[in-house]
Write a structure and sequence with these properties.
Helices cover 59% and strands 12% of the residues. With 244 residues, the protein is α+β, with helices and mostly antiparallel strands. InterPro entries: YbaB-like_sf.
Length: 244
C-alpha cells in the first residue's frame, strides 16, 4: 500500500512538473505595453505582472486634465494586464517543452532518489507519518489563508515617490486602486520626471504589498512552511531519518 502511495505521489509530481513547465513557458511571453484611451500613458509590466516602467507622452496635457491623470495611469496599467493575460493564454495553449532529464541536486532527482530507496517497515511508517504531517500543514494553512484572504485582498498599501510627488495605492493582491499627485508639483512637472516619479511610487507600493499582502500571508502560514519543506525533499527526509 505504501509503495502504491509513493507511485501516486511520483505521478502527481510529474503532472505538477508538466504544469509548472507550461506555466513558466507561458510566463516568458511578454504582453504588449498598455495605454490609456488617449495614448498619453504607457505602462510596461515585468515578468510578475507588476508595473515596471511608465512612459508619459509630452503632449498629455492636450488630452487630460490634472484630475484625469491618475485614472489614465490606472487605465493603462489595466490594459497592460489584459494584454499580458492574452499573451499568457496563447502561450500556455502551445505544446509544452519536453521534460529535461533530472540532474543531481534538482527537485525531481531528489524525489526519485528518495522514493527509489529500499525502506524497512519502520522507515515506511516514519515516511507515511512525515507525509501526513505535511498534508495536515497544508490543510491547516489553507484554512488559515482562506479565513484571512478576503481581508488581505481588500487592504490597501500606499507607495510614494521619494519626495511624495506621487502616491500609488494597491490592494493586497497588487491591483491599482488610486494614483494621486501633488498638484503644485504636477503643474510644472516635465513628462520625463513625471514618469520617473510614477515608476518609483509603484515600486515602493509593491514593496508594501510584498511585506503585507497575499504572498506574505501564505509565507507566514503553515502552508508556507509546507511549501518550503517540499522544496527540499532530502532535508525533509533527513528530518525523519529517511536519508543519509
Amino acid at each position: 500500500m505504501f509503495d502504491d502511495r509513493l507511485e501516486a505521489l511520483a505521478a502527481l509530481r510529474d503532472d505538477g512538473e508538466a504544469v509548472v513547465r507550461r506555466a513558466r513557458q507561458a510566463a516568458r511571453a511578454s504582453g504588449e505595453p498598455g495605454s490609456d484611451s488617449t495614448g498619453s500613458m504607457t505602462v510596461m509590466l515585468d515578468d510578475q505582472g507588476r508595473v515596471a516602467v511608465v512612459t508619459v507622452a509630452s503632449d498629455w496635457r492636450s488630452y487630460l486634465s490634472d484630475e484625469q491623470l491618475g485614472e489614465a495611469v490606472i487605465e493603462a496599467a489595466r490594459d497592460a494586464s489584459m494584454r499580458r493575460l492574452t499573451a499568457w493564454s496563447e502561450a500556455y495553449s502551445e505544446p509544452a517543452e519536453p521534460t529535461p532529464p533530472p540532474s543531481r541536486g534538482d527537485l525531481p532527482w531528489e524525489l526519485d532518489s528518495i522514493t527509489s530507496c529500499p525502506l524497512t517497515d519502520g522507515e515506511r511508517e516514519a515516511a507515511l507519518a512525515a507525509l501526513l504531517t505535511v498534508v495536515e500543514s497544508i490543510e491547516q494553512g489553507l484554512d488559515e489563508v482562506s479565513g484571512k484572504l478576503r481581508q488581505t485582498l481588500r487592504a490597501t498599501h500606499a507607495g510614494h515617490s521619494p519626495h511624495r510627488e506621487v502616491t500609488v495605492a494597491l490592494t493586497g493582491g497588487g491591483d491599482v486602486t488610486t494614483v494621486r499627485f501633488n498638484r503644485r508639483w504636477l503643474r510644472d512637472a516635465h513628462e520625463a520626471n513625471l514618469a520617473r516619479q510614477l515608476t518609483a511610487a509603484f515600486r515602493t507600493a509593491y514593496e508594501q504589498v510584498a511585506a503585507h499582502g497575499v504572498q506574505r500571508l501564505i509565507a507566514d502560514s503553515p502552508l508556507g512552511e509546507a511549501q518550503r519543506v517540499m522544496q527540499d525533499p532530502f532535508g525533509f527526509a533527513r528530518r525523519f531519518g529517511l536519508a543519509g
